[in-house]
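Our example pasted here:


***
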Amino acid sequence: MDDLLSATGSGSGPVPGFTGLPGGVAVSHLSVYDWPAADGVCGGTPHLHLTCSEAYVVTGGRGSVQTLTTSGHQVTELRAGTVAWFTPGTVHRLVNEDELRITVLMQNSGLPEAGDAVLTLPPEYLTDPETYARATVIPADAPEEERERAARARRDLALEGFRALREAEGPDALAAFHRAAAALVRPRVAEWRERWRRGAQAAARATGEQLDALERGDVTYFGDAVVRSRQPSEHGRFGMCGRLDVYDN
């Protein structure tokens, strides 16, 4: 869907428009896992995003999101109609109390589902990208039962690390996790920067150039207006927090 990630036009004239979702965001539909964990709570895999904010628009059911930041642990109730969001560096765990369903809004053209996420695994799994990948990969071509087992195993492993971070005294454990997460994703920063450049940066640049055009009384870019739509490209993908209906980005 690269055509939805790039602004058209160049140079000093007005940019006809960025044709992706507003602001270069992306969406997916999420049915939060109802698998019970060792603590008796049903839900997803705790993780953080390093460069993206994420928002939850709750469309049905009931639950909560547990978050952990340098300010401490917090629980935010989620029910139909709630909109909740958090910024990069927020460790979050979705809890499903009653068929929790969410539309997820993601910065940077869906980057959170394209690599900008690190699970809260115990430290020995965060030493290098290969070790981390072995503990978190879900084999795409495996039968559904095997993919479910892999998703549950990595969820439970991440919960071990999450509990340790919550129970740690002082900020050192969380700071160490932040450093390890940054080291894991560093090899992919150039790739992420390109996605941002073609998405959110292009959208902001297009708006700026359109404002410049309006100040000149120039509305010729209206002639390039388009209407786009998409259906989900995949249904029921095993994600970090639940089963996902996703759209190409």
Q: What stands out?
A: The helical segments are 129-136, 144-167, 172-185, 189-215.
